[in-house]
Amino acid sequence: MKKKKRKWIAGLLAFGLLAGCQKPVQKQADTLVYASQDYTRIDPIVDEHGEINLLLFDGLTAHDENNDVVPALATSWTYDEAAQTWTFHLRNDVTWHDGEPFSAEDVKFTIEAIMDPDNESENAANFMDVESIETPDGQTVIFKLAEPNVAFIDYMSIPILPKHCLEGEDMQTSDFFRHPVGTGPYALEAWETGQAITMRANDAYFAGEPNIKNVVFKIVPDSNARALQLRGGEVDLAQLAPKDAQGFKDMEGFDVYDMKTADYRGILYNFNNPYWHQNKDIIPAISYAIDRDAIVQSVLLGQGEAAYSPIQKNEYNDEGMERFDYDPQKSEALLQAAGCVKNEDGFYERDGEIIGFTLVAPADDSVRQDIARIVAQQLNDVGIDCSIDVPAQVDWSKQMAYVIGWGSPFDADDHTFKVFGSGQAANYASYTNADVDRYLQAARSSADPAARKVAYASFLQALTQDPAFTFICYVDADYVADSRVRGIVPEQVLGHHGVGIFQNIEQWTIS
Prior knowledge:
Layout: H1 3-11, E1 31-36, H2 53-56, E2 61-63, E3 69-71, E4 74-80, E5 85-90, H3 104-115, E6 130-137, E7 140-145, H4 152-155, H5 163-166, E8 186-192, E9 196-201, E10 214-219, H6 223-231, E11 237-240, H7 242-245, E12 254-259, E13 264-269, H8 274-279, H9 283-288, H10 292-298, E14 304-306, H11 328-337, E15 341-342, E16 348-350, E17 353-354, E18 356-360, H12 366-382, E19 385-389, E20 401-406, H13 417-420, H14 434-445, H15 449-465, E21 469-475, E22 477-482, E23 485-486, E24 509-510
Protein name: ABC transporter substrate-binding protein
């Protein structure tokens, strides 16, 4: 396993339960307290999915409530197709939280840091086509691409970091990521490890000072504990598991937001594990053995849908692709056709070895654990010996399979090229398929919607014939808020981990 994967797990939203007792957060007027997962660092160019990034940082572009690209640190941009050059014109009224002026040099520094393989950013694939970056003046940045990338404008929503704070620093371990400085609507005020991250409104924010003066990310990893603290008035907003959110449906004083997402769950197969070198051909049998609708109803309480595609919520999805609908008879027929025979215990064997594997679920995600348990039972029912492991920390080099989550509401290139492309930084399955690589490259290189539709259909067909994942379900994001919190956009389609609800935080109010 490459070092980058160990660092990714260590640095992302905490993958472990909070130990010890918490001190109560002192709520004040004009303060929003959000029940958050824990953070070991805030490094937005390496760790993509931190909800807190939207409060502290800005990109050149942003996404609005419809997930359309809008200006942020850039006021405008142009694309010269013949020269494959993007030119961004930057705002001249932006300062970092420490008072230093924002400039084009910060943009150049940030993107080059993402592209540097030594920094091990899972976002590197988004900028791999950048050939050069020029800064003719403080408010202009020019990107020359070696190959077209139609999603480039979406990817410029990546948070920009201050060169004057990070030049010469290690982008994985710098103390900056415990004391981040951004341009966003809120600035870091205090960080009590394992307790709370407190932010104050940026009164110099270019889009206008936020209405809510203080935001506290209180560390409450467990969904049930979050629900209890909502009821007790200790927090004002939390994302809950469906079973915990249900209790607030008709409760006075609370608003429940069942928000759609592009966030799916599936089984990631670790193709570095020798087991799959010999047994990759049984993956379709696994896929047919899973009753996805039953999982949606029992685990998600109907708040989600069966998954069959990584771009199911995108305009470029192929609705006619193979969905691996629940068919246990077909699952067993495929096992038998592969030379597997049931033993006296009811499990299939091949060449004297039992067909089965261990499925890992993260320790801080009760929904994924519940999904894993049902999947294991369904696989056992058809004769595949599946067991569950919930380790405190995942050993990516040795695990066999993992309940993965990915998905993006933005361009179809997002969370496909870097997840399924051979050798890409977010390809945690170590999956490789030359046809998949070719079709994904064709899709990102064309601005013609018809050509992209064909390319993505071909990609999905190749992925079906040689599966990297078994797709299980798309999950809604259940947010519960004190009714005093106003400004949340319930129609917005959120991203992975339900990230995106804070996209308009500066416009929220709390009475």
